[in-house]
Amino acid sequence: MAFFDDDEALAPEERPPSRRQQGSGGSPYLLRRIVGVGLLILILVLLLLGIRGCLNARAERGLENYVSDAGSIVQDSAQLSDRFFDRLENPENLDAMGFEQQVAADRGTAETLVDRVEELDVPGDLDGEHAEMLQAFQLRAEAMTGISNRIATALGENTGQQQVQESIDVIAGYMRWFLASDVLYGISKDETNEVLRDEDIEGRLPDDRFLPDITPWLDPEELRSTLTGVATGTGQARPGVHGTAMVDASINGIPLVDGGAVTISGGAPYTITANVQNQGDSVESGLPVTYRFSRGLSGSGEGTIDRVAAGDTAQVDIEIDPAPQAGDSGELELTVEPVIEEQLTDNNTITTTVTFE
């Protein structure tokens, strides 16, 4: 019995199982590490999604703000167009000076609109579209400046009829700048709205046409009639008959016979004296009277009749420069330029063969 007791004493001592010998679930420490890494990845993904969402929201707000601010500028531009062209068609009680002041104010408004377009916060997706819009508003401002600079002459203020027509032609040319600006804005609007649709933005840029109707404003004759109404304070083409006539003329007191020939003696200087009658129903001002030599003589010159009332006759003296020499001979054509809406011009010119002794 003692022997068996000794065998029990020699049996190996039992040891706790090692970590490797534990069950397939592994240790709690390793499990915690796996869970921690998973949570970290999840947090990073959520952060990235959050950042992306913030960036997308910011981009959407940028597009929305741009469309809202640009739309406000377009509305103000439409109001400027309405005001400017309505005044052209119906100046009401504005005289020429008051009309010029209003056009100058419109020019200032157009320049302010350009500044506002330049100050817009432009999203990166709309850089090209914005550049087209800016160019459109710049064209409008430059056209308004050109019209403002020419309007006084176009209204006949201290100018002759030739200068009036030249200024009207220039203004008609600037009207084409408005047409070009409308085309540019239309391109910008369509491209911008396409970007907004792609980004699911609800706002849209509105239509905008600065030139309301092409036909009357691009035609110099239509524009001439309109500005004549402004100049006379009627808002319409001048009523009644309009016309002038070359009554008589002389050189150093020697009468010029239309279709005839005269000899001028006494030597230089030579002065043409012309008498012009206003045969219309309205006061005329800034009437150019011109002379031109041909057929053996050369040279030309001009004088101006400042003002002549309806039915009255006014005189203008024009020195011939350079003076012809003794023995020179040629044809002299002396003309009073037609006034606005003058229909009969057969009596505006005297043509005489002149010989100088």
What does this molecule look like?
With 357 residues, the protein is of the alpha+beta class. It has helices at 2-10, 28-89, 96-118, 127-154, 161-198, 214-218, 220-232; strands at 244-251, 254-255, 261-264, 271-278, 284-294, 300-308, 313-319, 329-336, 349-356. Strands 3-9-8-5-6 form a five-stranded mixed sheet, with no helix packed on it. A four-stranded antiparallel sheet has the order 2-1-4-7, with no helix packed on it. Helix 2 (28-89) runs antiparallel to helix 3 (96-118) and helix 4 packs antiparallel against helix 5 (161-198). The longest helix is centred in the N-terminal third of the chain and has 62 residues, at 28-89. It is rod-shaped.
* Structural category: alpha+beta
SSE run: HHHHHHHEEEEEEEEE
For the termini, the CA-CA separation is 180 Å
Number of helical runs? 7
Taking the sheet with the most strands, its summary is:
5 strands, mixed
Beta-strand content bin:
15-25%
- Pick out the low-confidence regions: 1-11, 19-25
Specify the oligomeric state.
single chain
- Specify Rg, calculated over alpha carbons: 44 Å
Strand order of the largest sheet: 3-9-8-5-6
